[in-house]
Amino acid sequence: MTDRPAAPIAPNAPIAPLDPADWEEYRRLAHRMVDESLDYLRDVRARPVWQPMPGRVRTALTGEPLPRTGLGDEAAYADFVDLVRPYPNGNIHPRFWGWVMGTGTPQAAMADFLSSVVNPNCGGLEQAPVLVERQVVKWCAELMGFPADAGGILVSGGTMANVFGLAVARQQRAGFDVRAEGLQGKHPMLLVYASTEMHGWLKKACELLGLGNAAFRRVPVKDDFSVDVGAMAAMIRADREAGHRPICVMGTAGTVQTGATDDLVALADLAQREKLWYHIDGAFGAMARLSPETAGQVRGMERADSLAFDLHKWGYLPFDVACVLTRRDADLVETFSMQAAYLASESRGLLAKEGFNFFDRGIELTRSFKALKVWMMFRAAGTDAIGAHIARNVRQARRLASLVEAHPELELLAPAPLNIVNLRYAPKGAAPDVLDALNREILARLQEDGIAAPSGTVVRERFAIRIAVTNHRSEDADFDALVAAVVRLGGTIAAR
Predict the structure, then answer these.
(1) Is residue 11, in this structure, part of any structural domain at all?
(2) 98, part of any domain
(3) 420 confidence band (pLDDT: 50, 70, 90)
(4) Residue 109, in any domain of the structure
(5) Could you tell me which residues come within 8 angstroms of residue 426 by beta carbon, excluding any fewer than 6 positions away?
(6) Considering the entire predicted model, what is its pTM?
(7) Residue 60 belongs to what domain range?
(8) What pLDDT shows up at residue 294?
(9) From the CA atom positions of the chain, what is the Rg in Å?
(10) What is the DSSP string of 60-114?
């Protein structure tokens, strides 16, 4: 790679267009891209879940010189087909159960294409895409049991949605104007309370928002991995007596480790009693409310002051789109609004007074049209269908847990109340210090052989093969194949 500057261009030299020079030729290529992409989705089950990149691919993707001169559309697409499309992480495959990742649908993929064609900036202004997002937020509020006049905004993912919720909590319960004064004055230490099973976003958010890691009060959990509400209440009282200022109680609907859900009703009562903000991280578990079969597991969620959840996880949509809701729209506006002369309202035009500005309800001024894929998917499929797939995933997780418990060489390492199953291969007589290494090797082989893609974690100091079921393409036979593969690989590796 060289650092040479671009060659000078003569003032009157012709410039290659960025739009197609020949629209009909490009139309043929675009149709081919669509056809081959649909084939790719249709035939997903015929491919390995994941495969390592060959050396030549890694070299091509990391060592290419800056392309000063274009290769042309055909060549660029051919390189995508050769170098990129065969080597993703595999989360669209029916046997991908790692971490908590969504699967996407062809319909939503086309909506992403359509949004990119229109390419609006959805920060605000008088335009239809902003009204689409307002409608999507209203639907999300209805699904989650929030008031009709709740506030909300679509963001990139659960981390950002949760950060927004904590930022609102900080502004609303600090006891002073954080936006005006910052956290550098002589104010009591602001504290937030969540379980030790809370996702890592909270530590990062406390640091990012200036609260500091010490502001995150880690509350112990019970045997079922839900937060000990009594212990949280005691911590709040002790911190107040020490001169600190508790501002926020947090619950989790579906912990990332085991799928446990906190007692959301008891936490709501605690927050109300202590006059604290109540935020819920519902990254994937909040979506359980879409099905009557599973809605009871997140009872109390509708009492939150703010709620964060991903639509690209258990809503089966493509990355990236998540939502944060607040009971009052004013809570978002008071936390994020800005008054800039270049965005002042006018009586007519793009800045008409009746317009709705999302840039006054979040950080970003420039925002993509994330809402279109949600709007189109909700309208095309219906939220009842999404809820039915969610309920099926829960049934699949419970069935897998039963298969594990019934097998003499497998062990269930945690309850499976929602959609996450933690298991390990544990033949009788195996030494405890050998089992962790054995199961790590099983996990690696499952992935490298393209059989399935679970992830790994540690539950009560024991390594677990972790299966997170948020995949609308998975069938019961896929889980049967997983159990068979774990036992087969475990036996082979142990014998070796």
Answers:
(1) no
(2) no
(3) very high
(4) no
(5) 409, 410, 411, 435
(6) 0.93
(7) 23-48+51-87
(8) 97
(9) 25
(10) HHHSPPP-SS---HHHHHHHIIIIITT-S--TTSTTB-SSS-----HHHHHHHHH
Under the banding of pLDDT at 50, 70 and 90, the label for residue 1 is very low
Looking at the structure, tell me whether residues 358 and 393 fall in a common domain: no
**Lookup result for tokens 């109300």:** 272
209 inside domain: yes
Residue 57 burial class via C-beta count within 10 angstroms: exposed 0-12, middle 13-18, buried 19 and up: middle
Statement to judge: residues 68 and 39 lie in one domain: yes
Number of structural domains found in the chain: 3
Q: Where are the alpha helices (DSSP H) in 383-422?
A: 383-406
- Which stretches within 281-370 are classed as H helix? 329-336
Q: How confident is the model at residue 482 (pLDDT cuts 50, 70, 90)?
A: very high
| Pairing assessment for the beta strands 410-412 and 420-425 based on DSSP bridges | antiparallel
Sign of the torsion angle spanned by Cα atoms 154, 158, 159, 162? positive
How confident is the model over 227-259, as pLDDT tens digits? Answer: 999 999 999 999 999 999 999 999 999 999 999
Q: Which of 342, 358, 381 is the last residue of a domain?
A: 381
**SS3 of the chain: helix, strand, coil, percent, to 5:** 45, 15, 40
For 104-140, the pLDDT digits (tens) are 999 999 999 999 999 999 999 889 999 999 999 999 9
User: How many residues make up the chain in this entry?
Assistant: 496
Sign of CA dihedral 195, 314, 138, 265: negative
373 with 405, same domain: the answer is no
State residue 190 phi and psi, 5-degree precision.
Answer: -90, 135
